[in-house]
Amino acid sequence: MNTVIGYARVSTREQDSAAQESELRAAGAVRVFVDQRESSRVTDRPQWVACLDHLRAGDTLVVRQLNRIAGSERMAIETINELAERGVDIKSLTEPDIDTTTPTGRALFRIAAVLAQLRVDTIRDSTRRGLADARARGRVGGRPSVMTPERTATAVRMRAQGQSIAYIARELGVGASSVSRALAKVHEPTTV
Question: Are residues 26 and 98 in the same domain?
Fold first, then answer.
């Protein structure tokens, strides 16, 4: 049984979902799930979860735009793939390429998914190469430690006097884990 189910989402208090709901019903949706003031990057939106529970094999999920269900390209592709595995088609009203109810739409989606994955892999590979190059030149990324050489020397002195890590951290105005890491580095055996 092919039932058309709609999903709408508005992310701010000022937005009204009525226009989306009206478009979805005009596209044949017999039921529309609506999330109010929810981010598309959150996967456990109450009405989205209810919509996913409601969908059955053979159903079509219709949305105004793909960004209503997913906050990123990767999330959209994962969602569409998960729906396809369940036998659920998806159709976007404003993006004609996103329509898995047709052979052409399915093919275009697969091509888009491959290109998106290629882009992700290329970015990941470039990032790895860049980090390896930076390490080879002696550069280490990340946020600078709050434990300056002066703070570390003070922590070493206080620890030698028997003060607890928690006390030292409070006195220096830093976290206990920062003190622990700094002390561990000071006491690491040097290899020659």
Answer: yes
Decide: pTM greater than 0.85: no
Question: Could you say which DSSP state residue 188 is in?
Answer: S
User: Are 18 and 106 found together in one domain?
Assistant: yes
First to last CA, the chain: 73
Q: Within a domain: residue 84? A: yes
Highest mean pLDDT among 97-101, 114-118, 174-178: 174-178
Tell me the residue range of the domain where 168 lies: 149-186
CA 41 to CA 132: how far, in whole Å? 31
Cα separation, 181 vs 166, in Å, equals: 13
pLDDT tens-digit series, residues 89-105: 999 998 877 888 888 88
Compute the mean pLDDT over every residue in the chain, rounded to the nearest whole number. Answer: 87
**Cα separations (Å) of 68 from 6, 9, 13, 80, 136?**
11, 6, 16, 13, 43
Q: Which residues are catalytic?
A: 11
- Check the CA dihedral 10-95-100-41 and report its sign: negative
| Cα–Cα distances in angstroms (integers) from residue 66 to residues 7, 14, 21, 109, in the given order | 10, 21, 15, 12
Domain tally for the chain?
2
The answer to whether 27 touches 62, Cβ cutoff 8 Å, is: yes
